[in-house]
Amino acid sequence: MFYGTRITFGLQSWQVVQTDGGSASLRIGGSWRLEEGAKRAGVSSVTPEYRLAREDDNSLVYDWTGADEVTEKTWEATVRLPRGGLYRLETCLDAVSAETSEHWRFRGDIRTHIGAGDVFAMAGQSNAAGYGKGVAPDPPDVMVHVLRNSGKWDMAAHPLNDATDAPDCPNAPMGQTGTSPFISFGREYAGFTGAPVGLIACAQGGSSISMWDTRQGGRLNRNMISKIQRAGGAKAVLWYQGCADASAQNAPLYAERFKYMVGETRRALETDIPYYTFQLNRYDAPHDHDAWNAIRQIQLDLSREMDGVYLLPTSGMELGDEIHNSSRASVMLGRQLARLICLGEEAPRAGKISARGSEIHIQITGLAGELQKQCGQRPEECFRARDERGIIALTQVTHGPDSIRLTLARKAEGDVFVSCDMEEAPFAAPFRDSVTSLPVVPFYDVKAD
């Protein structure tokens, strides 16, 4: 028969709790029952207690502490976790002998591998859910944990988005998922911060942004908000989506829908939670050039216009099939995302674009080093210029440390528009930052001065 203390809510093994100001706190509780022999011997007081220990060396963070709310059968306590870990939380039932005043500490539940660090929601469609194929070193790490669709915390291992014990979870996959960027991200992020990382599986393959818009049902966004709230908060949303909206019908609505989704999420969570977004990569089965271009440009514009929205380009990354990043690409993207968040390492972008006669000059901003051409790339295939007469052929593309010059086959007439890495399957980005290796962010039909 049960006696001692049980934890019935508030904390799981492998859980990562979002910190605020160097620590985290959460409300836990459960039930308790005194051992029959102790009752017969007589006790003067009975108190459910808990303590916190470090798992790396077994040292105590703090010793036995009494629960702050106790009834005849239940107990509750607010547990404090300093940023870091991993920790072990132990409970016991402290009974004081009525005869000798001796403390008899009876057994209690424990929770292991607990972290206090940063929690991230993985949201969007298939490249966020993880459909990567192929072999790439991306092992589990004890500092990276995941809240799976089953509602259980675990050490993170691919696939992060799975259907085990989750038949009613709105983002449970229909098919078999694979690798994503987020274990690599968590491992790199934990290396920078020294604190555990928690990942929340929220993405669903094939989902359009309307499925994240609460005006149109928005079941996936409601699901994500609920998961974040149950987890005790999150540091940021990691958003990789847009393929499903790359159509003539949906692309014009994307910016407004994204803005509404972000606003609704922030209102529900009562915090200006940041969104770190991935710009679309390639699609090797072209169907709508203009819409694919438009989504990429909208994603770039949103990162410029909205506070707390950031952009990571994915151009040039290897595909594992016609539309999903390979496992090798996922590992690289995860590392780049961690560097963006921790170091502010943003990709270079086009600044001022000037058209004069038969030349176009593109100033590149945000470089950590110099522009560097990738070996084997044909940059004239990666840029496009058009004017009122139509597309202008490029005869040469040259670059300096922080600028690109397009030489045109004829003199431009009227308004001039410039694109870089356009359409679904562009040539892999020709220019990168020599220090960060990040490509120049693709852009579409930007008007030249």
Distance from first to last alpha carbon: 81 Å
Low-confidence runs of at least 5 consecutive residues: none
* Structural class label: alpha+beta
CATH class of the largest domain: Alpha Beta
| Number of structurally distinct domains | 3
| Count of runs of 4 or more consecutive helical residues | 7
Sheet-strand content, in percent, reads: 35-45%
Shape: elongated
Average pLDDT value? 92
Radius of gyration (Å): 27 Å
What is the number of beta strands? 26
Classify the helix fraction into a percent range: 10-25%
User: CATH topology of the largest domain, anyone?
Assistant: Rossmann fold
- Sheet with the most strands? 12 strands, mixed
Q: Which CATH architecture of the largest domain?
A: 3-Layer(aba) Sandwich
CATH superfamily of the largest domain: SGNH hydrolase
Please name the defining characteristics of this protein.
3 domains, 19% helix, alpha+beta, 449 residues, twelve-stranded mixed β-sheet, four-stranded antiparallel β-sheet, Immunoglobulin-like, Rossmann fold, 26 strands
Question: How would you describe this structure to a colleague?
Answer:
It is a single chain. With 449 residues, the protein is an alpha+beta fold. The protein folds into 3 domains: 4-108, Sandwich (Immunoglobulin-like), CATH 2.60.40; 115-343, Rossmann fold (3-Layer(aba) Sandwich), CATH 3.40.50.1110; 349-447, Immunoglobulin-like. 19% of the residues lie in helices and 35% in strands. It contains 7 helices and 26 strands. The protein has helices at 36-41, 126-129, 182-193, 219-231, 254-269, 289-305, 327-343; strands at residues 4-9, 16-18, 23-33, 43-54, 60-66, 69-70, 74-82, 84-97, 103-106, 110-124, 144-147, 153-155, 197-201, 236-240, 275-278, 309-312, 349-356, 359-365, 371-373, 383-387, 390-392, 394-399, 403-408, 417-420, 431-433, 443-447. Strands 2, 4, 5, 8, 9, 10, 11, 12, 13, 14, 15 and 16 form a 12-stranded mixed beta sheet that branches. Strands 1-3-7-6 form a 4-stranded antiparallel beta sheet, with no helix packed on it. A 4-stranded antiparallel beta sheet has the order 17-18-23-22, with no helix packed on it. Strand 22 (394-399) and strand 23 form a beta hairpin. Helix 3 (182-193) runs parallel beside helix 7 (327-343) and helix 4 packs parallel to helix 5. The protein is elongated, with a radius of gyration of 27 Å. The mean pLDDT is 92.
